[in-house]
């Protein structure tokens, strides 16, 4: 499936925040890209703000429109706050869980590890990044892949704060998805209600 592989700093500058992690370019040039980026200040319409939040969420979690829409429809079909349910489903994706556990330095790297079948769920290899991890399930690195440089370096230099809804066993390189996180625990700066309003138009 196609993914955005262009300059990440350009996208971060569009949103004015480091949505892919620390960004030195954004720190120096905190304004939209383009020759008029530093001077043009347009006020977005309500629709524009809603669209912006949806695009930001898609870039953060590395999802395309079709899959993101499917997630929204699944959240809409459940009982509860649709926006919060959507965020919880995004956080439950296998590639995101691998990233949150610190096995990979970014979601893109985590997606690649999953695609290349380096990750197991409950002891079985899963090669689908969008696989939804359920509470109680374990996520681990395949034994033969535990010495991979990207994994060893990522675990040695964690860039993600510990998540209270997951636990990690360093000896076995296994994490447990203890529970679905509360919205207040998810650090991403996304206005999920704006996304719900956009899709409800």
Detail the topology: elements first, then pairings.
Elements: H1 8-15, H2 24-28, H3 46-61, H4 65-77, H5 82-92, H6 94-100, H7 107-115, E1 119-121, E2 124-125, E3 138-141, H8 149-156, E4 166-169, E5 174-177, H9 192-199
Helix pairs in contact: 3-9, 4-5, 5-9, 6-7
Provide a concise account of the structure shown:
This protein is of the alpha+beta class and 201 residues long.
Characterization of this structure:
There is one protein chain. This protein is an alpha+beta fold. It folds into 2 domains: 8-81, Ribosomal protein S4/S9, N-terminal domain (Ribosomal Protein S4 Delta 41, Chain A, domain 1, Orthogonal Bundle); 90-183, RNA-binding S4 domain (Structural Genomics Hypothetical 15.5 Kd Protein In mrcA-pckA Intergenic Region, Chain A, Roll), CATH 3.10.290.10. Helix content is 42%, strand content 8%. It contains 9 helices and 5 strands. It has helices spanning 8-15, 24-28, 46-61, 65-77, 82-92, 94-100, 107-115, 149-156, 192-199, and strands at 119-121, 124-125, 138-141, 166-169, 174-177. A hairpin with a 2-residue loop joins strand 1 (119-121) and strand 2 (124-125).
């Amino acid at each position: 499936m196609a993914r955005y592989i262009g300059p990440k700093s350009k996208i971060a500058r569009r949103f004015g925040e480091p949505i892919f992690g620390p960004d030195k370019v954004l720190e120096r040039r905190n304004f939209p890209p383009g020759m008029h980026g530093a001077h043009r200040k347009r006020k977005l319409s309500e629709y524009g703000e809603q669209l912006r939040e949806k695009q930001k969420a898609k870039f953060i979690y590395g999802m395309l429109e079709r899959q993101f829409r499917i997630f929204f429809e699944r959240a809409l079909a459940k009982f509860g706050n649709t926006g919060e349910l959507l965020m919880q489903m995004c956080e439950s994706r296998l590639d995101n869980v691998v990233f949150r556990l610190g096995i990979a330095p970014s979601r893109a790297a985590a997606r690649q590890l999953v695609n290349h079948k380096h990750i197991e769920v409950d002891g079985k290899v899963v090669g689908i990044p969008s696989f939804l991890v359920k509470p109680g399930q374990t996520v681990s690195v395949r034994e033969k892949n535990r010495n991979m440089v990207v994994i060893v370096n990522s675990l040695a230099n964690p860039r993600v704060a510990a998540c209270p809804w997951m636990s990690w066993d360093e000896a076995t390189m296994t994490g447990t998805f203890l529970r679905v996180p509360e919205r207040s625990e998810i650090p991403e700066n996304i206005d999920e209600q704006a996304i719900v309003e956009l899709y409800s138009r």
